[in-house]
Amino acid sequence: MRGGHVGFVVIFILLATAGNLSGEFAGDYSKLSGIIIPGFASTQLRAWSILDCPYSPLDFNPLDLVWLDTTKLLSAVNCWLKCMMLDPYNQTDHNECKSRPDSGLSAITELDPGYITGPLSSVWKEWIKWCIEFGIEANAIIAVPYDWRLSPSKLEERDLYFHKLKLTFETALKLRGGPSIVFAHSLGNNVFRYFLEWLKLEIAPKEYGRWLDDHIHAYFAVGAPLLGAIETVKATLSGSTFGLPVSEGTARLMFNTFGSSIWMLPFSKYCTTDNVYRRYFSGGNRKYHHAYHCDEHELKSKYSGWPTNIINIEVPSNRGNEVYPSVVETPQTNLSGKECGFPTQLSFSAREVSDGTFFKAIKNYDPDSERLFHLLKNYTMFCHLKFRSYHDDPILNPLTPWERPPLKNIFCIYGVDSKTEVGYYFAPSGKPYPDNWIITDVIYEIEGSLYSRSGNLVEGNPGATSGDETVPYHSLSWCKNWLGPKVNITRTPQSEHDGSDVQVHLNIEHQHGEDIIPNMTKLPTMKYITYYEDSESFPGTRTAVWELDKDIRY
Q1: C-alpha span between 220 and 554 (Å, rounded)
Q2: How many Å apart are CA 327 and CA 205, to the nearest integer?
Q3: Which residues are catalytically annotated?
Q4: Which residues contact 283 (CB under 8 A, 6 or more apart)?
Q5: What is the Cβ-side half-sphere exposure of residue 132, based on CA atoms within 13 angstroms?
Q6: What are phi and psi of 407, to 5 degrees?
Q7: Which residues of the chain have pLDDT under 50?
Q8: pTM over 0.85
Q9: How far is CA 400 from the centre of its chain?
Q10: CA 282, CA 195: separation in Å to the nearest integer?
Q11: Which helix (H) or strand (E) segment is 165 a member of?
């Protein structure tokens, strides 16, 4: 997901006026701390090994920069990959090299100074510079970097990340005298969600709410892929280079070894998991039960609530159902041409991607599919490995819809009205793995309509607008469900104005599960911010959603 730029300034307007936030924090608001949870690929990784790189003058030594050192990437790509890739099944390091996340603010400010420009390289640098100019104390801004290659359960198992995060909040309270404001970007929001669920097991139920009130004053969810991100599918099947000087195949090879590779898969808002997790203090035994189920809306909806099918893929049709077991489960409309020996095109919804149906269906055509299915649901043949799959995670199944976190103040901020990918067409490339798939077409959402790569209008279920160029609107806007039945809506220009262009609608009715579409005007030459605010439905809390028009890099 994209890194941040100076668009974060708008968030700090709220930080500077923190006294307007809800809750009963009585005291000096200068005592608040800001805790930053960065997004995917937004933390530097450093070598924790000595690796001799043949045919290259550059070796890897302890504390050398790995992510991101583009000089070593260009001169010793095979060595660099050894330091980046993990075992695809148990998430352990390569036997010749291992990397660990850097610490402190420097770990998230700039990934490779001087080489790559744009959203990947300069992540939080300008944001922190603005904080310094604003007069914020050095100990008031705390970064909590993490190894973004790992699944959430592995983050805790290997690095005790969530234990450390809990201590960070407690230390900030003791040091500054006040609670913290959480700024999470992209995957960082998923990390924070998992932390809140993990915390329930570490704190007595009666103390959980009090701990949150004492330590977290507000949560800013920036560019949060609340229902997943479509580009994760592209990275999994054909590779996403992040702007690096590597081939898509190499990027895919690396990405698919990460346990986090499917943390942001798109999933259905109609499917949930019931988790019952009990800790028995005598002997420390843990027992849990899972029940993944979808409601009737999933059966009635055509695309799991998304604008279109996530994946349309051509596969060979001459191998029969014996080696393609999912064919019998696929609607007959997907099987046209099979009898004639032509390639079969299969379509998969968000649910069928996230529950493993898709990966199971192509296991005879792609060597990565079995591993990805294992990450989602443990295969019997791999059950001896110590690894919790996503659907079997006793803390949380991350591929299920979010409920509003039990926090006083929540601000959900994202961009809209940009051309955003929402579906793909794949076909065999005729090349060996990892380049065995090519994208033959892309479906985009553009301001409330769906278009193919060639510009043709596509039928489907588009939303009221489009996403932020990376995450579709359907996923970003899920936090509107955290608003209550009465919502105040304000639309104002992003540029300087005299107030005459501000539009305000009060007490607009909102049905849970449905989008809120304001009946307000937009000038085609003007960029706006639309605020949706609900501070009355739930006493002592405030929920706000900010939609920023076009070209906003947050």
Answers
A1: 12
A2: 46
A3: 186, 468, 512
A4: none
A5: 8
A6: -115, 160
A7: 1-10, 12-19, 115-119, 276-287, 289, 320-339, 379-385
A8: yes
A9: 13
A10: 25
A11: helix 161-176
